[in-house]
Structure formats: C-alpha cells, structure tokens
Design a protein that fits this description.
Blueprint lengths: L6 E6 L17 H8 L1 H15 L4 E5 L10 H16 L3 E5 L21 E3 L7 E6 L2 E8 L23 E6 L16 H6 L4 E5 L5 E4 L4 E4 L15 E7 L5 E7 L3 E9 L6 H17 L5 E9 L5 H4 L4 H13 L6 E8 L7 H5 L4 H14 L6 H21 L1 H7 L6 H20 L6
Parallel strand pairs: 1-2, 2-3, 3-4, 6-7, 7-8, 8-10, 13-14, 14-15
Antiparallel strand pairs: 1-11, 5-6, 9-10, 11-12
Helix pairs in contact: 2-3, 5-7, 9-12, 10-11
This protein binds manganese (II) ion (MN).
Length: 440
C-alpha cells in the first residue's frame, strides 16, 4: 500500500432536502412552523459550514439528497449552492443517490449547473474517483448511485479496493437486513470487509452510528435533521480524520436546527398544580439548556407514583398543562416546544402493602398479581387461561375494528409484552376506582 498523507473529510447523507419536519401532535405558532418547514435545508447549510470551518479536504454525500425522485427547485438549488460554497472554499464533493432520489427518470441535474469540483457517481458498477492533493492521489472514492428506487442487488459486493493509499466506499445500503427500513442494496458486514475498502461512508439508516470497526470502518451518517418523532435525538455528520498510518477516526458533530427530544418527569413528591407546573417548566428548561442553542420539539412523559395522579386523568388537564408550559418557552426560536404530554403515572398507593389487606380491593390486586405471575412453565393451565382472557378482550381491537387494525396491525406487540402492559393499566384503573376515597 502506498504511504498515506493525513487528510480529513466530512461524511453526510440522507439530507431529504425538500421535506419538512412532520408528525406534530399539537398546534404550533407560525414562527415554529416556518422553522420546521426550512429545517432540512438549514441543517444542510450547517453541514456545509462545518466542513468549511473544519477545513476538510472533501465531503462525501451518501444518497437520499432529495425526498423525491422529482425534487423541488428549492431543494435542488439549496443543494447546488451548498456544494458551490464548498467548492469556493477549495473543498470537493462526491455524491451518490439512494432509494429516494434514484437517477433513472430524474430531471434534477441537467437544469442546474454544478461546480466542476462536484463529482456525482452514476449507476455503473466499479466507478471510482481519485482525490488529489498537489497532483498526488491521497484517497480514492468508490461510489454507485441507485438507478431505481427499489435496488435489490447487493451493490457492496461489487466494490473492490485498488492500489490507492486509502479507499472510501460511498453507498446507500441496508447492512445486515435492518428491520423497519427498506431492504435496498442489502449486504452484510462481511461484504463490506471483503471489499478491502478502508472506510465505508454509508447512507440509508437515519440513526447515525458506527456499523463496524473490525477490518474496515463503516459508518451510517444519519440524517442531519430529524424529521419526525421517530427520529429522536442529535442529528449531524461525521468528521473523519485519517492519519499517516492509514488509521481513521470518526467523530460525530451535531448539525440539526431543531431536535426531537423525549424526557420523563417523575411526579413523586409533587403535591399540587403549582408544584407540577413548576416541575414541568424546569424539566423543559433543563432540556433547552442542554440543546446548545437549538430549538427543541419535546415529548414529555409523566411517570412514577404520586398524589397528582388522579388530577392528571381529568379531562382536558394535560392539554391545559401543555399550553401553560408552551406560553413561556415556545414562542420564537430557539424554542422548547412541548409537542406532546403523555401520562403514564400510577396512584400514590403502596401496592405491596395494599395487596395484603383482606378486602375487595385487596382481592382485586391479588388477582392481578396472580395473572402477572401465571408462568407458562410452572402453571401452564393458569397461564393459558389468562392469555385466553386477554385474547378475547383484544381480538375485537385487532381483528374487527378497522381503525384499530390500521394503527396497530403492523406494530402489534408480542402477547407477552401486551399482557404485561394491559395488566399494568388495568391495575392502575382498578386502583383509581376502588381506592379513590382512601387516604394514601
Ligand atoms: Mn434516507
């Protein structure tokens, strides 16, 4: 292998430029909506700024630049302009396309003029482009774009390292058949290793993360902007440094404009409305302080046991609480907008002690506990009887109620998971009803 000149590059992808942030439960202010509409393009701008500030040698873009195969003028223009800024700073860029923006039948490229420092890979196998510094090759990028949306061929298997000092594979792919994602360009970690490629710059899985460090360094860049509540947490790009020994290190850098965040608040010890409102506000302020000046879309879950539990179940209470919290913290960017508020609290009852009391409520709690402990191995008869109760109660929801089937069908949890959750909820409702007048 020729000797390596140290260099650095930025790995990004899954920009989905012409799609807004969606999936909000509550109503938002016009300022918030405007920020959400432009969040993906603004995050791309942050990626470009990061590359320039860090003076990287080049940028690789791992597919799904656009949301659709016929991208908007705005999305194309923002992309072209970002690459143009990079070029003006002496930074070349290398781009492949993925399942959202495949090349066949796409009309995005011809009408806009791209800098000649932009290299876009086509759909042919075995293509590569050298990265030159002072006329000398420092790395070679191997890349392949999707021709159509549903590529079922193992594209990674066609990648082969040559005699270059450092080899980068740029590909949109599903490594290891990850569930919940389109199984496009499926391949295994072994395929990645067998190629001899030093660094795999992967796109497709939106959660950023390192796939393997064994034999090759393979990384999913993730999208620079989470676009719905399924995409929680920090989003950004990877700054990769390669040293003279050809060793790479990848460092994640946040580039998101607005961040989906979920937080829990334990209601233990909160005695009244005043205390609860103050605790919610302080939880949101803490989250905002940790967000580095960017806006937050917050999902807050109330958990634990406490005296406020019955109040939280009053009709309209959660919505009021959410609006009160938002009056203060969610007016203009950077905002901490409480997007949803969910109550999973339980009554302030010592269940273990209450279960031992010989009365009707005690009978109820002992019955719930018996159902919970009906083990398949030690007491198969009781186990099956309880599962039958559960099944007959839930069958109408899954099988006979069209809306229920639509919402729950694909995500139906295993019977064991469902059984535990249903029992917990039934126990809480029963305790609320039976012990409403009892001192806790
Ligand atoms: Mn994508």
């Amino acid at each position: 292998m020729p000797s390596v000149q140290p260099f650095r590059f930025l790995h990004t992808g899954d920009l989905h430029l012409d799609s807004p942030v969606t999936g909000l439960r509550g109503e938002a202010t016009p300022e918030i909506l405007a920020l959400l509409r432009d969040a993906t393009t603004d995050a791309w701008r942050n990626v470009v700024r990061l590359a320039i500030a860090e003076r990287v040698d080049f940028v690789v873009v791992a597919g799904d630049v656009f949301e659709r195969s016929s991208p908007t003028l705005l999305g194309q223009t923002r992309f072209r302009d970002g690459l143009g800024e990079l070029a003006a700073a002496g930074i070349g860029s290398y781009v492949v396309h993925g399942n959202h923006d495949p090349l066949d039948g796409v009309s995005w490229a011809p009408s806009l003029t791209f800098s000649d420092r932009v290299h876009r890979f086509g759909t042919e196998a075995g293509a590569s482009a050298p990265v030159l510094r002072d006329g000398r090759e420092i790395a070679r990028i191997h890349g392949r774009s999707y021709g159509s949306a549903a590529v079922t061929e193992n594209l990674a298997a066609g990648f082969r390292r040559g005699d270059e000092p450092y080899a980068i594979g740029l590909l949109h792919a599903n490594v290891g058949d990850r569930p919940g994602h389109g199984n496009y360009a499926p391949c295994s970690v072994d395929d990645l290793r067998a190629s001899g490629i030093d660094y795999w710059a992967l796109g497709h899985i939106h959660q950023p993360g390192i796939v393997t460090t064994d034999g090759t360094l393979a990384v999913y860049c993730g999208n620079p902007q989470g676009r719905d509540p399924g995409e929680m947490g920090a989003r950004g790009a990877w700054l990769v440094g390669v040293d003279a020994a050809g060793r790479a290190s990848a460092e994640f850098r946040a580039c998101d404009v607005v961040r989906w965040t979920s937080v829990d608040l334990d209601i233990a010890g909160l005695e009244d409305d005043e205390a609860l409102v103050a605790a919610v506000r302080s939880r949101l302020t803490d989250a905002a302080d940790a967000a580095d000046g960017r806006s937050l879309l917050l999902r807050l879950r109330l958990v634990g046991r406490g005296p406020m539990h019955p109040t939280l179940r009053r009709v309209g209470y959660l919505d009021d609480l959410r609006r009160i919290a938002n009056d203060e913290l969610a007016t203009a960017p950077p905002f901490a907008w409480l997007e949803s508020l969910v109550d999973t609290t339980r009554p302030a009852v010592d269940l273990a002690a209450r279960r031992a009391v010989p009365d009707f409520a005690g009978d109820f709690l002992r019955t719930v506990e018996a159902a919970r402990r009906a083990d398949r191995g030690t007491d198969p008869e009781a186990h099956d009887a309880w599962r039958e109760v559960l099944d007959s109660a839930l069958r109408p929801v899954f099988d006979e109620w069209p809306r229920g089937r639509r919402h729950l069908g694909a995500a139906r949890p295993s019977n064991e998971e469902l059984f535990g959750a249903v029992l917990d909820e039934a126990e809480a409702i029963g305790v609320d009803l039976l012990l409403a007048t009892e001192e806790s």
